[in-house]
Amino acid sequence: MSAATMIKVCGLVDPTEMELLGATGVTHAGVWWEVPGSSRSLDTDGLRRMAVPGGPDGCLVTFSADVEGIADALAALGGSCVQLHAFQPPSAVAALRRRVPSTTRILKVLHVDRGRLLERPFVGAYTRAGVDAYVVDTIDGGRIGSTGVATDPGTLLAIGACLDRPFVVAGGVDASRAGELDAVRRHPGWHGIDVDSSARDEHGALDPARIDDLVAAWGAGSLVGAGAVPVAEPAA
Predict the structure, then answer these.
(1) Is the pLDDT of residue 1 over 80?
(2) What single-letter DSSP state applies at residue 233?
(3) What SS3 class is residue 32?
(4) Of 9, 97, 186, 188, which is most buried, counting CB atoms within 10 Å of its CB?
């Protein structure tokens, strides 16, 4: 995994949104496939339309555990990484690692419910299966993904201490929280942020001003002099 800071905006559905993000400091665009109940979950043709030259790296975000389906969807998107957002088991991660190109990064979401990391017993197995980085996100009343619910700094630091891969923070992350999470950003495993609603206006459209604020607050330049330590690329 690159030591560069990840700034990922999720839920894109239109090629013009990819073009908009391409003019910002956003590094990755999360494109949803097989996300049940979401109008922003695209089919294969929709994924192909999102492969826009000059845009940020595409990241396929899915609840699916169908390894062949994920591999085909990733190829349609032309993405550089896959984010497994539900409770896919380590065996599915291992099968996906064997199936996709070796350059594909696999991100596994870890779920926090009232301060408890639900997948804590399986972290070692996920790492051995081939996870490149983790995304720490919150559950809200059983709802998974795009909850907008924040995890407190102490909990994030405790979770970071038990991970042996870089981690990305999701859930209630906006420009105003960069100061609150300064200690998390200094953690040697911290790798970036994953956002959805905080990059959008009140109507749900991507907001360039809010995105610029996110990049300024959380991007690599914001860490100059902050004491952050890069995480090295894990050995193959």
Answers:
(1) no
(2) P
(3) strand
(4) 9
